[in-house]
From TrEMBL:
One GO cellular component, as annotated: plasma membrane
PANTHER family documented for this protein: ADAPTIN EAR-BINDING COAT-ASSOCIATED PROTEIN 1 (PTHR12847:SF15), ATP-BINDING CASSETTE ABC TRANSPORTER-RELATED (PTHR12847)
GO biological process: endocytosis; protein transport
Role this protein plays: Involved in endocytosis.
NECAP PHear domain mapped to chain residues: 6-163
Protein name listed in UniProt: Adaptin ear-binding coat-associated protein 1
């Protein structure tokens, strides 16, 4: 996984001054006023990069890009990068070589805005590292928790109540039908047939008024006539 990680650039500042600093004699912190600020020991370009969770402060030559010194940082704020007590433009960083040797040097920016960008780039990187660590931790805790079995067991049933109707096995609920005005209508009788009222017989008056038409003569009789 480490071989697949790529290096990204977090910040680039073209002008940075490097100072040799006296050893710290107390726990009160470093003071830039103790350095020879008018006579820096080296001047070049600063790049802040990241590879995985580790950030790197790289001091490079302005023209050739050759690496002058490098400071790996695995925590910020921390011992690898410290601010001074009397200025926001100067920092103390711990540089390391490939053999494990380390030394503390001072760096400073002429522009206060460059110092602000340098500080923010480190803060943003380690804020991201903290978030990634918390997400990974929560994911591992979720994998170790027992999973809930929400499936039905053999022979297990459930009963659903929908409004005032209760569904039961073997039959369906009969809804109540309401007509206009809120009156309840009786359901049809069992069997599903509706009785039709009988047709009344014709009255005697209708029979008396009925006139029988004359018989129709055949065609032969009509010709003889």
């Amino acid at each position: 996984a480490a071989e697949l990680e790529y290096e990204s650039v977090l910040c680039v500042k073209p002008d940075v001054n490097v100072y040799r600093i006296p050893p710290r004699t107390s726990n009160r912190g470093y003071r830039a006023s103790d350095w020879k600020l008018d006579h820096p020991d080296w001047t070049g370009r600063l790049r802040v990069t990241s590879k995985g969770k580790t950030a790197y402060i790289k001091l490079e030559d302005k023209v050739s890009g050759e690496l002058f010194a490098q400071a790996p940082i695995d925590q910020y704020p921390g011992i690898a990068v410290e601010t001074v007590t009397d200025s926001s433009r100067y920092f103390v960083i711990r540089i390391q070589d490939g053999t494990g040797r380390s030394a503390f040097i001072g760096i400073g920016f002429t522009d206060r805005g460059d110092a602000f960008d340098f500080n923010v780039s480190l803060q943003d990187h380690f804020k991201w590292v903290k978030q990634e660590t918390e997400i990974s931790k929560e994911s591992q805790e979720a994998d170790t928790r027992p999973k809930l079995d929400l499936g039905f067991k053999e022979g297990q049933t459930i009963k659903l109540n929908i409004g005032n109707m209760t569904t039961k096995k073997g039959g369906a609920a009969k809804p109540r039908v309401s007509g206009s005005g809120g009156l309840s209508l009786l359901p049809p009788p069992p069997g599903g047939k509706i009785a039709v009222p009988p047709i009344p017989p014709p009255s005697s008056t209708a029979i008396a008024n009925h006139v029988t038409p004359p018989p129709v003569l055949k065609s032969s009789n009509m010709s003889s006539a």
